[in-house]
């Protein structure tokens, strides 16, 4: 039995689908029961689980032999870092009590850095906690996800300007589709891991893009002229606060992009490198279609 935490997320859905397509038994862990139907429809067992509720994690892990673990950054709270650290600690305690499991933990490019990377720093802490709690651990570090641009898609479609925190606009950066991450995660789960210790695997897409490339891909998908706009650094925090993010959440994002723009976040050369097949235009075609539905 393969257990998928965060099953209703972009990557989790792809992992579950890839495993089911290959005929494997899958238990999808969802926080919201309303998400159950998408998984029962493809033959998954569905259980309700909450990373703040250790008992629910043990129920989800019963009789499993491998698990995909995702601790997402919480939204809406006063301090997302504190909330995520709490989830990491709960998950680590639960996993420690299931020592036979092979765990594939979803992480980020740059997680080897121990300071100054904002959101990515939280995944550094996740990796450290899991390395102490899990005997057979695979860390799957992915580049920035292509679907993250969906957050500014309405603005770009309405104004013809794509706001970017990537500076300068012509600097390429690694990015990857949720489809490719999910398919690789499924492969790593099926491969298993006999030896104790930590394996680090990285994934990004078939090529790197800059923000101007992103705007061109969106223009093609939307069939309208869209150009990239380097949002001035002084406007980052006010813009995010106006969008409804709390101050602590906004700081995590600004720290992340400060590190990204300084060249501090990239693939760890010590990792096993993998490359997805999905190009950005294909992802944007789906995002635009969904936005206009």
Automatic annotation (TrEMBL):
Listed transmembrane segments: none
Cited InterPro entries: Ergot_Alk_Oxidoreductase, NAD(P)-bd_dom_sf, NmrA-like
Protein name: NmrA family protein
Gene3D superfamilies per UniProt: NAD(P)-binding Rossmann-like Domain, UDP-galactose 4-epimerase, domain 1
Ranges where the NmrA-like domain occurs: 3-259
Record-linked Pfam families: NmrA
Lineage of origin: Bacteria, Pseudomonadati, Pseudomonadota, Betaproteobacteria, Burkholderiales
Coiled coil: none
């Amino acid at each position: 039995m393969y257990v998928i935490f965060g099953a209703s997320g972009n990557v989790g859905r792809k992992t579950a689908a890839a495993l089911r397509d290959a005929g494997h038994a899958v238990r999808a862990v969802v926080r919201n029961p309303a998400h159950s139907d998408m998984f029962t429809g493809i033959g998954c067992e569905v259980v309700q689980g909450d990373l703040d509720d250790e008992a629910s994690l043990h129920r989800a892990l019963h009789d499993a032999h491998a698990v995909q673990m995702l601790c997402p950054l919480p939204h809406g709270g006063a301090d997302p870092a504190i909330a995520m650290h709490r989830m990491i600690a709960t998950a680590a305690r639960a996993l420690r009590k299931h020592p036979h499991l092979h765990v594939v933990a979803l992480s980020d490019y740059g997680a080897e850095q121990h300071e100054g990377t904002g959101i990515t720093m939280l995944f550094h802490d996740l990796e450290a906690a899991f390395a102490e709690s899990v005997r057979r651990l695979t860390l799957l570090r992915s580049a920035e996800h292509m679907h993250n641009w969906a957050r500014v898609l309405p603005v770009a479609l309405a104004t013809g300007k794509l706001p970017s925190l990537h500076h300068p606009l012509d600097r390429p950066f690694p990015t990857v589709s949720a489809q490719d991450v999910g398919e690789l995660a499924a492969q790593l789960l099926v491969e298993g891991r006999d030896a104790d210790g930590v394996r680090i695997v990285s994934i990004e897409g078939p090529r790197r893009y800059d923000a101007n490339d992103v705007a061109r891909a969106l223009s093609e998908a939307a069939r309208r002229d869209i150009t990239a706009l380097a949002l001035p650094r002084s406007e980052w925090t006010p813009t995010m606060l106006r969008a409804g993010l709390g101050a602590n959440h906004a700081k995590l994002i600004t720290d992340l992009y400060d590190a990204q723009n300084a060249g501090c976040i990239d693939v760890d050369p010590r990792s096993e490198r993998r490359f997805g097949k999905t190009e950005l235009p294909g992802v944007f075609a789906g995002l635009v279609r969904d936005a206009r539905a």
